[in-house]
Amino acid sequence: MASGNSFYITTPIFYVNDAPHIGHAYTEVAADVVARWHRQAGDDTWSLTGTDEHGEKILRTATANGTTPQKWADKLVTEAWKPLLETIDIQNDDFIRTTEERHESSVQLFLQRLYDDGYIYSGEYEALYCVGCEEFKPQSEIVNGTGPFEGQKVCAIHSKPLELLKEKNYFFRMSDFTERLLALYEERPDFVQPESARNEVIQFVRQGLSDLSISRSSFDWGVKVPWDDSHVVYVWFDALLNYITAVGYGQDEANFDRRWPATHIVGKDILRFHAVIWPAMLMAAGLEVPKQIFGHGWLLVGGEKMSKSKLTGIAPTEITDTFGSDAFRYYFLRAIAFGQDGSFSWEDLSARYQAELANGFGNLASRVVAMVTKYFDGVVPAPAEYTDVDLAIQEVVKKAADDADSSIDALAIHDALASIWTIVDELNGYITDSEPWALAKDPANAARLGTVLYTAVDGLRALAVLLSPVLPQATHKLWDALGAAEALGALVDQPIRDAGRFGQLPAGSTVSALQALFPRIEPAVA
């Protein structure tokens, strides 16, 4: 079992049947921000992402593109999925591919153990299958088709016709774990979050679980079933195991014990796989279940879930090429309550960029640095006696840091950002009310001017630390401009849970010119 300060977080591993859109990037950024926060707090942090490269959907896509599944996967990983991480500034510790030997061999080991312990048996199965979901669909997700698919049964998620499949398969005795799963949800209310996701999962399991088909014999693109190579492992059974194969299951037990269990961040459309099938698999293997599964909402375009197949997918570069990666990261985590659906809007993105990032945070930083340069020759002044308004700012900073840390622990990333932004708003108001430009006109006010600007500078120091997981580029620029790198060391080494302690930046530090953190964006000319 992992030590008390171990924090292991994962994204889903994404299908390589197409290029990523902002829905995928949203999940990546959320996990990255939480990982960066814990890493900077001194926790033994590990962040995992990767790609799911087996299954019938990948085989069909590769064939349609005139290549092999492996070559198709290699192409998409190299040209699309790994570049995505650079585009949105992801700082992952590992990238797992399900076609790697370290994964495939451990999948076979896991499966063999379940087979030897009697949790797997052979049988025949006939049901409606969605290639897009790579799943035999439950009745609740089968709907009547409309338009060109009228008279057919279609997938409620993909709106495409289902295929009736009949195969001899191997089955996992998942029905044996109905009561154990319900007990788990009862004993650990935070195991599945948010609350709406937890209720959905409990309702599903209470209806009773069926055994799960875990192999396919109609195609051969997948991990071979170790005792019967005419079958390949069901893609979801294979893919879920990435979370343990990536940290050493079956190969490096010391590392596995150090890292596991993990916090899984997933889209709500794959919640059932993670909150029902996955813990049942682990229970059968005698392994600890995950620490938590958090099912976030969908990004909506025109009221529908973002989808490449419906031509509603937006490439992350469409945003980052104009607004930058920091703005991308900030917008999706601030504008959408994490755990709920949220609609993407170019107008809202532009408005928040201008009001909150450029005029709010960016302008605050520029004004303060400029005033220290103008009134104190670029040297951070020593504060004199603090007044009530100064102490109030210190209290705002401390409370914001404490509240943000609590929110990150609860995966309420939007609340963490809202707490941190109170510092931006309060500092802007503090400067307006204190009028340092007026104080500078009378030498008798020099001590008061120094106190006001020191308070503002150290507030910026706290903001740089607290916002560094979200805005890594802008905060590094600010950190350097404040002279904090020389005085306190690298930004990434600052203890984030200590950021609210006021007065850390030494007086006498030298500020330097700060270019606009969020430059003005000219509207496109039609």
TrEMBL record:
Keywords from the named record: Aminoacyl-tRNA synthetase, ATP-binding, Cytoplasm, Ligase, Metal-binding, Nucleotide-binding, Protein biosynthesis, Zinc
Catalytically driven reaction(s): tRNA(Met) + L-methionine + ATP = L-methionyl-tRNA(Met) + AMP + diphosphate
Key word Glycoprotein present: no
UniProt similarity note: Belongs to the class-I aminoacyl-tRNA synthetase family. MetG type 2A subfamily.
Function: Is required not only for elongation of protein synthesis but also for the initiation of all mRNA translation through initiator tRNA(fMet) aminoacylation.
Name listed for the protein in its UniProt record: Methionine--tRNA ligase
A GO biological process held by the record: methionyl-tRNA aminoacylation
Record organism: Mycetocola zhujimingii
Co-factor requirement: Zn(2+)
Entry-linked HAMAP family: Met_tRNA_synth_type2 (MF_01228)
Localization per Swiss-Prot or TrEMBL: Cytoplasm
Highest taxon of source: Bacteria
A cellular-component GO term for this protein: cytoplasm
Higher taxonomy: Bacteria, Bacillati, Actinomycetota, Actinomycetes, Micrococcales
